[in-house]
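Input set for joint prediction.
Command: fold jointly, output C-alpha cells.
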Amino acid sequence: MNLLEMNHIKKSFDGVSVLKDVSLSVKEGQVLSIIGSSGSGKSTLLRCATMLETIDSGEIIYMGEKAAYTDDKGKCVYAPPRELKKIKNYFGLVFQNFNLFPHYSVIKNITDPLINVQKKDKEEAMEIGRKLLEKMGLPDKENAYPFQLSGGQQQRVSIARALALNPAVLFFDEPTSALDPELTGEILKVIKDLAAEKMTMVIVTHEMSFARDVSDYIIFLDKGVIEEEGTPDEVINNPRNERTRAFLSRFEN
Amino acid sequence: MDFTTMLLQLSTGMLESVKIFFFTLIFSLPLGLLICFGRMSKNSLIRNIVKVYISIMRGTPLMLQLLVVYFGPYYLWGANIGGKRFLAIIIGFSINYAAYYAEIYRSGIESMPVGQYEAARLLGYNKIQTFGRIILPQVIKRILPSVTNEVITLVKDTSLAFALAHMELFSMAKQISAAQTTFMPFVIAGVFYYVFNFVVAILMEKAEKKAAYYR
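C-alpha cells >
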C-alpha cells in the first residue's frame, strides 16, 4: 500500500497556477526526491502534502485515508477536523529555516510536543529525546538553546524533533539551503543514515549528487508540471527530457 | 506645617497613586490582550468596532475620559455616582491603557515569524497551546521595552486623577501648596514620582535580563 498518494493536485495563488495536475505516490521505505528550479512549485507541493496550504483540487491520501478529495461538483473537500488530526500524525516536516522554538532548550524543543501533544510522561519523553540527540551526534547539547548552536546543529535538532513524534513519512523542505556550504554535509549524512534505516522520506532539494545517492525515485518539477520522473539513474544520469537536461546542466560545474 | 507632617500627608497621597497604578496594571494588561484579539479578529465587524475604540482611547485626553466615566452615567441615566470615584478612576485608566497595550501586543504578535506557527502546527499543538506555549512567551520578550515605556507613563498619569478631585499625590501636593503658600509639596511630589519610576525601571530591566536567556 502507498503511504502517501497525491493525485491530480492543482494549486494556484491569486490566479497564478503553481501546481498543474501533479500526481505522485510514496511507498513505505521509499526515498523520493523532488528537484526543480526555484518557482517550479516543489516547495508548494510539499506544503500541500503537509497541509500548510490547501489544494484547489485533487486528492491527498495517507495510508489509504483520504485527507482531501474533489467532489462531483469539482469542489475540494478536506476530511473533518478529527480525522485530519489523526492523519497529521502520519507525517513530519523539517523546515528550511529549522523553526526551532528559541525560548526552549534543545531537549525541550524535542520533548515538549511529546508531553503536551502526545501526552507521554516526562521520563519517557526525556528518554526519547536523549536517544535522538545521541543519534544526531548532539548528546552534550541537551541544555543548550538554539541560538547557541550552529545552523547544522539546529537543523539536526529539528530533525530529532520531527522524528520524536514517530512519523510514518518525513518531509524535508530544502533542509540544507539555509546552511553554510561547509555545514550541508552533516545534514546530508543524517538523512543518508535515515535512508539506510528505511525511513520513508520526501525530500525537496537542490543537492543533485545527494539526490542521486539517497533517492529511490526522483521527480523533476518544472513550472508546476512533472516533466520527468524515474530512478536516479534515469532522471539524473540519463535524462530524456530537454528541460531536465537544461536544468541539470546548470549543476554540472 | 512642619516638614514631617507635610511628608506624612504626601505619603498618604503617594499610597493612593500607587493603588491607582497597580489596579490599572492588573486590569489593563489582560484587557489589552483581549482587545488585541478583537483588533486582529477575522470578523470585520468586531475588528472595526475595536479599531474605533482604540482610536477614541488614543485620540482623546485621558483626563476627559476620566470625567466621562465618572459623570457620564449621571448625565446619561441620572445614575447616582456618589462614592464611586475610585472605581471610576480605575475603569477610566484601565480602558485607556488597555487600548495602548492592545497595540503593543499586536506589534509583538505580528512580528512573530510565520514559521513558528507552522512548526507548532506540524508538531500537533492546538491553537491555544500554540499561542500560550510558543507565541506569547516570545511576544512578551519582544514587547518588554515598549511595555516599560507605558508603565512609566502610567506612574506619571496617575496624577490626572486630580481631575476627579481624588486625593492622590498630585492633588495632595496642590492642596497643601495652596493652603500653606509654599512650593515645597510639589518638589517632594516630584521626588516621589521620580523614585517610584526609578524602582519601576529597575524592575523592568530585571525582567528584560531574565528574558535574555535566549535570542
